[in-house]
Amino acid sequence: MYNAVKAANPDWEIGQSFDSSILSSVTRKSVEANLVQSGNTFITKSIDYSV
């Protein structure tokens, strides 16, 4: 979800509101394309921005 919002609005930061219609472009295929298996779990290929 983060990647979809950030792609639509590069100035968006975590905690800011965004147009929820952006999420209609998120598909299972697009989510799975950004995952890699690590042991028994899946993680994103990108940098972890969690705080």
Mean pLDDT: 82
Quickly count the domains: 1
Oligomer: single chain
DSSP summary, beta strand count:
2
In what order do the strands lie side by side in the largest sheet? 1-2
Structural class designation: alpha+beta
Textual characterization of the structure:
Strands 1-2 form a two-stranded antiparallel ribbon. The longest helix has 7 residues, at 2-8. 24% of the residues lie in helices and 16% in strands. It has one domain (2-44). By secondary structure, the chain is an alpha+beta fold. β1 (35-38) and β2 (41-44) form a beta hairpin. The mean pLDDT is 82.
Topology, element by element:
Layout: H1 2-8, H2 28-32, E1 35-38, E2 41-44
Antiparallel strand pairs: 1-2
What key attributes describe this structure?
single chain; 51 residues; alpha+beta; two-stranded antiparallel sheet; 2 helices; 2 strands; 16% strand
Condensed summary:
This protein is an alpha+beta fold and 51 residues long. It has helices at 2-8, 28-32, and strands at 35-38, 41-44. The model has no long low-confidence stretch (mean pLDDT 82).
